[in-house]
Amino acid sequence: MGLKQKSADLKKRMREAVKGGGTKAIEKQKATGKMTARERIMSILDNKSFHEYDLFVKHSGVDFDMDKKYLPGDGVITGTGAINGHPICIYAQDFTVAGGSLGWAHAKKITKIMDHAMKLKIPLIGINDSGGARIQEGVNALAGYGEIFFRNTQASGVIPQISVILGPCAGGAVYSPALTDFVFVVDKVSKMFITGPEVIKSVLGEEISMEELGGARVHCETTGNAHFYAESEDESFSQIKHLFSFIPWNNERKAETFPKRPPKTRQYKIENIIPADPRQPYDVRDVIKAICDDSEFFEIQELFAANIVIGFARIAGQTVGFVANQPLVLAGVLDVDSSDKAARFIRYCDSFNIPLVTLVDLPGYLPGVDQEHAGVIRHGAKLLYAYSEATVPKITVIMRKAYGGGYIAMCSHHLRADFVCAWPTAEIAVMGPEGAANIIFRNEIKNAENPDDIRKQKVKEYKNKFANPYVAAAYGYIDAVIEPSETRNFLVHALEISESKTVQIPKKKHGIPPF
Amino acid sequence: MKENDVLTKKVKKVSYKSLLIEDIKYRTILTKKYQSRKLYEKKDIKKITAFIPGTIKKVYIKSGKNVKEGDKLLILEAMKMRNELLSPTDGIVKSILVKNGDMVLKNQLLIEFE
């Protein structure tokens, strides 16, 4: 064979392999409204940037006549490319080839690209669309999953890891996404669960549809397993690209800086957003938009534990992570889910050198037997742990209420915030005036002729004395009381002077956070 | 109206409720998860329920008879395990609502004491 023939032979082999599961299987995939694995990669990556690896890898199954089967690429496409001009590693499971099932060779392709990402210190995107372990390969399939989980853990906090669930992802397979930083799901396409509806029905007698058990909405709203909800695959891909504009490429770098842009103050005027009455709600996301560059706030886990808001924005061109109580939902209380959500985000920001801005307005913790029994003590402790542990610049703005344990938990000076400022509307106190008056003046109220009048009077007294920022300011627990309209300037300055912040942390292998 | 549609601003009208925390009433939106939370119920020691769905494999007791705390009541097989249910109290069996071979759901009432 001359070079010409050899080239022709290569082209033929490539054409064959690139077809994946073939026309019929591709049609079936499309009929369910899904893109093919290759189309997905092309849609996420910059135009013509994809370089494929291991196209000719063969599976290693021998039992159950598997040795007679040809599985193109062994059901997964791997390679490198670019997003917004920056290099990235990617893999996409191909459902058209043996249902995207994971065998040994399939797993080896994935772990190879993962090792590559770690070596090159560039992000990894995994697109999941798989029926699960390839049963015919037995324990080798399990070994494959284990190898992936180990690498996910090693890479955690070193390079960004993104999972996109675009099909089924069931049984052990769910744990790779669960170990990664952000999980993207698409309505009616994504399905994640450990045990499926059939098993649950036969063992437990509980009847539930796949969508209700582990659909996109459930994981965004109820379980918190997913971070970004989209109505279509295309929407999901643009979310991914948007996310990558905010985060650094690895833990030794900082996020890319953009030109400084003012917020859209005509639309979001900070003075008009907050009601003076601490019992009245408002949308804290409007406050963030009134502060950040171009009023562009990229929210994470919007639908889960909405009583706390987390996400990325830029201040003077630099990425910051916002953590904010949301008075609009459940009065902005801390509870099991919101503590968990915020704590993980704080650790993400700390790992990837993203400064934290905390906006405080909360009445305390959510009371209830369900909360106590669900472990609000240990989940709440995650928030204290994450804030205390974080060494990135930490800036706190106390807008209105900061009562009790909630005040401490929301990045107070005591947890080593670098800058804490309060608005004149701030109320920093051991608890709300009503509760405090009822305890301190219990006997006076009980023994009074008109208990209600006395209670009202005592609440008023307490309010006048303690429901303000000046008691805390007198002890130096807050650094400054500022006008709300000064907030952005305060943050810009604080971020500027924190540029080279360094903190000595005690030598240890790792802590034992209340996971 | 879904609470999450409010969050994504797909609807204009918001239904506010009040939430009481430390004697202060806050005006706010309640989440679906919060509204559907299970309120705590004190366990009734005189009612024996299935802690797991499964099949009744044996009933040791008869109605009207005295049992002592720790006596075997029945075997409930579930997830390939034969679970012996023991009496949590001394008492007289008022009624047995299941028999051998019955499939039972989680929390289904099995035995009542007087």
Summarize the structure.
Chain A has 515 residues and is an alpha/beta fold. Chain A has helices spanning 3-18, 22-31, 37-44, 104-120, 139-155, 175-179, 197-204, 210-214, 216-223, 233-244, 270-273, 284-291, 336-351, 369-373, 376-389, 404-409, 433-440, 442-447, 451-466, 470-474, 487-497, and strands spanning 51-53, 76-83, 86-93, 124-128, 161-165, 168-170, 182-186, 191-193, 228-230, 298-300, 308-315, 318-325, 356-362, 394-403, 419-422, 427-429, 480-481.
Would you kindly provide a written description of the structure presented here, covering whatever features stand out?
The complex is a heterodimer of chains A (515) and B (114). By secondary structure, chain A is an alpha/beta fold. Chain A has 21 helices and 17 strands. In chain A, strands 10, 11, 12, 13, 14, 15, 16 and 17 form an 8-stranded mixed beta sheet that branches. In chain A, strands 1-2-3-4-5-7-9 form a 7-stranded mixed beta sheet, with helices on both faces. A two-stranded parallel sheet of chain A has the order 6-8. In chain A, β14 (394-403), α16 and β15 (419-422) form a beta-alpha-beta unit. By secondary structure, chain B is mainly beta. Chain B has 2 domains: 3-35, no CATH class; 47-113, RNA polymerase II/Efflux pump adaptor protein, barrel-sandwich hybrid domain (OB fold (Dihydrolipoamide Acetyltransferase, E2P), Beta Barrel), CATH 2.40.50.100. Chain B has helices spanning 3-7, 32-35; strands spanning 17-21, 24-28, 47-49, 54-59, 66-67, 72-78, 81-86, 91-96, 103-104, 109-113. The A-B interface holds A 203-206, 221-222, 278-281, 302-303, 306-307, 327-333, 337, 363-364, 366-370, 373, 403, 431-435, 438 and B 3-4, 7-8, 16, 19, 21-34, 37-40, 52-53, 78-79, 103, 105-106.
* Overall strand count of chain A: 17
Cα(first) to Cα(last) distance of chain A is: 62 Å
Shape of chain A: elongated
β-strand percent of chain A reads 15-25%
Query: What does the main sheet of chain A amount to?
Result: 8 strands, mixed
- Quick one: CATH class of the largest domain in chain B? Mainly Beta
The run of helices and strands of chain B is HEEHEEEEEEEE
User: Helical stretch count of chain B?
Assistant: 2
CATH superfamily of the largest domain in chain A, called what?
2-enoyl-CoA Hydratase, Chain A, domain 1
Topology-level CATH name of the largest domain in chain B: OB fold (Dihydrolipoamide Acetyltransferase, E2P)
What percentage of residues of chain B falls in helices of 4 or more residues? under 10%
Main pleated sheet of chain B = 4 strands, antiparallel
Largest binding interface between chains: A-B, 37 and 31 residues
Output mean pLDDT of chain B: 87
How many discrete structural domains of chain A?
3
**What is the number of helical segments of chain A per DSSP (H or I, 4+ residues)?**
21
Residue stretches of chain A low in confidence (pLDDT < 50, at least 5 long) are none
What Rg of chain A is obtained from the alpha carbons, in whole angstroms?
Answer: 26 Å
Query: Percent range for helical residues of chain A?
Result: 25-40%
CATH class of the largest domain in chain A, named Alpha Beta
Instruction: Give, in spatial order, the strands making up the sheet with the most strands of chain B.
Output: 3-10-8-5
